[in-house]
From TrEMBL:
InterPro entries: Homeodomain-like_sf (IPR009057), HTH-type_TetR-like_transc_reg (IPR050109), HTH_TetR (IPR001647). The keyword Acyltransferase does not apply. This is TetR family transcriptional regulator. Residues 16-76 form the HTH tetR-type domain. One of its GO terms (molecular function) is DNA-binding transcription factor activity. Residues 39-58 bind DNA. Gene3D superfamilies: Tetracycline Repressor, domain 2. Signal peptide: none annotated. It comes from Arthrobacter yangruifuii. Keywords: DNA-binding. The keyword DNA-binding applies.
Length: 198
């Protein structure tokens, strides 16, 4: 984690670039600490800016979290669309989507913030946004990727298993059963994708 002192001089970035950099820092902090463990101060330190500037840009931690959710969804859908549109794409639709999913899983700030959001279904603000995002992904799989409902269910279930193992850092488990599961799913998924790594 970055430990930049916000008081030190840093190169001035255009507002759009600073906002994007702050979103990236926030995604990492939310991925690591969850919504409740993250603070705007911790995010500001990660981004190398002041807490007041974070609040000025986004208004509140809640609004920042919603912006991170939106960015994660955009990155996933963009990665899926590129994988399907690639002229030299090999394998089935499931294979190509799986490879794109796993590539994004290498960045902790993409899938894990969404997992934290999905666990907050009862929150009056984050819950509806998380449900909307999940449905957006489901509709993409059914309508744009043209997967069958059973294929979409399997793809999502496999992706959630990958996310859960990443969030738990299961490869660090002392019990061989846990570390072996992580080995089978995570290492196998890096070469095969969520659906085909069985």
């Amino acid at each position: 984690m970055k430990t930049q002192d916000p008081s030190r001089s840093t190169p001035r970035l255009p507002a759009a670039e600073r906002r994007q950099a702050t979103l990236g820092a926030a995604a990492e902090v939310f991925a690591q600490h969850g919504y409740y463990g993250a603070t705007t101060d911790r995010i500001a330190r990660e981004a190398g800016i002041s807490q007041a500037y974070v609040v000025r840009m986004f208004g509140s931690k809640e609004q920042l979290f919603l912006a991170v959710m939106g960015q994660s969804l955009e990155l996933i859908l963009d990665g899926f669309r590129k994988a399907l549109a690639a002229p030299d794409g090999e394998g089935s639709t499931m294979d190509r989507l799986g490879a794109a999913y796993v590539m994004l899983a290498e960045q902790r700030g993409v899938h894990l913030p969404l997992m934290h959001a999905f666990a907050m279904g009862s929150d009056p603000v984050i819950g509806p946004a998380a449900r909307g995002g999940f449905l957006q992904l489901l509709k993409f799989l059914l309508e744009e990727a043209e997967l069958s409902p059973a294929e979409a269910d399997d793809f999502i279930a496999r992706g959630m298993l990958i996310n859960t193992l990443m969030g738990l850092r299961m490869e660090m488990a002392a019990d061989p059963a846990g570390s072996q599961l992580a080995d089978r799913v995570l290492k196998g998924s890096r070469s095969a994708g969520p659906e085909t790594a069985r």
